[in-house]
User: Fold this.
Amino acid sequence: MRIVPRHGGWLEVVCGPMFSGKSEELMRRLTRATIARQRVELLRPAADTRHGPDELVSHAGQRMDGRRIADLDQIAALEADVIGFDEVQFFPEGIVDVIDDLTQRGVRVVCCGLDMDYRRRPWPVTQALLARAEFADKLQAVCLVCGGPATLSQRLEADGSPASDAGPTVEIGNGERYEARCRACFRSGA
Ligand code: ADP
Ligand code: MG
Ligand code: ZN
Assistant:
C-alpha cells in the first residue's frame, strides 16, 4: 500500500524497457483516477507519431485518449487533478521543471518512459524525474531470448544482428527492430 502525501501533489515514475507494460500501467492508474471522478489528462510527446494524434495505444492494443503536446506552454494551463505523461523521455528537457511546477501546484503527475536507450545509457529526462519522484517503479518485460525478466531494449539490424552503437538515439516507429532482453542476453553493437 502506498501512503500518499496529505498536502499537495506528487510525482510517480514508471520506467523500464520497451514492452514492459509502462503504457498499460499508466492507463491503469489514470483509469482508476477517472473512476474516482478526478480530472485526468494524458499527454504524449509531439515526436510520438506511432498512432493517431489523440490516442495512446499499448502494445497489447489497449487505448486511451491522449493528446500530443507540441509546446510545453500548453501544459501549465490544464485544469487537472492527475496528469499522465507517456514516453516522457521524448519531451524536451524543460519538461522536468514543468512537472515540478505541476506537483508544487498540487497535481498528481504519473510519468512513464524508458529508463535507458538501446545502448544502455540513461535517458536524461527519465533520470532527472526518477531522482525527484516520490514513487518510482521499474517494470520488466520478458526476454525474447531466454524467457527471463528483461530490463533492456535491444535494437537489431534487419538481419537480426545487434544495431551499431553509432546509430541515432531516437528511432521512433520502428518497433519491429527492438526486442526486450535480459542483461545476459543483451548484445552491444560495435
Ligand atoms: P511499454 O509501454 O512498456 O512499451 P505496453 O504497455 O505498450 O509496453 O505493452 C505491454 C504489453 O506488450 C504486454 O502486456 C504484452 O501483452 C505485450 N508484449 C509484447 N512483447 C512483450 C515482451 N517481450 N515482454 C512483455 N510483454 C510483451
Ligand atoms: Mg509505451
Ligand atoms: Zn535473457
In short: The mean pLDDT is 94. Residues 10-139 form a domain with the Rossmann fold fold (CATH 3.40.50.300).
